[in-house]
């Protein structure tokens, strides 16, 4: 039932009408505040998650670079081992 219907159904004094309107306004304001609070909370979570993803992507890039460097170092050391083995066989 809408507020207009409530007002039309039974005559009310001005103070009763104002009270009804005030109560409705308070309920609507509370709903708005709840939605705004949820929006802020969700937005903060989104920004935090975004920052975590950015940080993780940077870490993954760094680890990938380190991994590639270590693979190159392993290859270099394997070649060095082969050269040493060849010298020992001679």
Structure description:
The structure is a single chain. The chain is an all-alpha fold. It has helices at residues 3-9, 14-89. The protein has one domain (3-89). Helices cover 92% and strands 0% of the residues.
Keywords:
90 residues; mainly alpha; 92% helix; 0% strand; rod-shaped
Number of separate strands: 0
User: Biggest sheet, open or closed, and with what strands and sense?
Assistant: none
Percent strand: under 5%
Could you say which overall geometry the principal axes of the C-alpha atoms support? rod-shaped
Number of helices: 2
Q: Which parts are unreliable, with pLDDT below 50 for 5 consecutive residues or more?
A: none
Class of secondary structure makeup: mainly alpha
What oligomerization state is this entry in? single chain
Average per-residue pLDDT, rounded, comes to: 91
State the share of residues found in helices, binned by percent: over 70%
Provide the number of structural domains.
Answer: 1
Radius of gyration: 36 Å
Q: Tell me the span between the first and last alpha carbons.
A: 102 Å
Helix-strand string: HH
